[in-house]
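Example record used in the benchmark description.
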Amino acid sequence: MRGECTITLEDVHLQLGLPVDGYAVTGFTQSADWGAVCYELLGAIPDRIKGGRIEMGWLRDTFPEPDDDSTELELIRYARAYILQIIGGYLMPDLSRNLVHLRWLLKLVDFRAAGELSWGSTVLATLYREICGATVSNKAKIGGCLSLLQSWARYRLPFLRPRVNHPHTFLLIMRWNHSASYVGILTSLEDIRLLLDQRSEAQFEWTPYEDPAVRAVIPDEFLQNPNIWHVKAPMVTYAIVEMHQSDRVLRQFGFRQSIPVTPEKLDDEHEIDFH
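Model output (structure tokens):
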């Protein structure tokens, strides 16, 4: 295929339903007393805190589902623990798949304030960083929201998409929760690479969300500010800085693609992490 394509803020917004136009998720973490943070916000302290990370299993065991007798404080603590599990297990899992950093907990002090943050750009920046790291030849694992990556590919590459006989629903990523037929779908990596090389750009679905069947299930509130989807800007979340290079994939937004300028180089920023 000719032309560039990538996951964008539009995909995160419509696939996962996460806000993409709020405040950046960032702040100071180096001086935090993580045990004190856990006690204040969760009411419990795990036996082990590894570099600001706690085990997902501890969250599941310590915070079972609340019942009708739960107090408001217990419900708030459960909600924080549940959101942490979603972040560490689905939206932004690290390579361990069993640890979640408590820096996210610092953003759950006030749920109203948390709702004003750009969680969508945070998830996308994290996935960009993980995809970048996975290009290293000796890298065997990748973190980030791989369900989003898979769903993005299925919406845009119909020749690799399993058949689902079920109406579209919102969130769009939930389409793959239904039973699907994989008859005729290639599974070998070598075969998939060859198939991609053989396909033309006309066989790539540049604007899958314009399909009337898809558009019909997207709530109006998610279509109020489409301009935010194709803004070219750095996405910042703690130690991660990634460019949203929307100018290189204008066809995904229904625009004519001009010759893009040289992409932003963030080599220095990519050397920074939490380790």
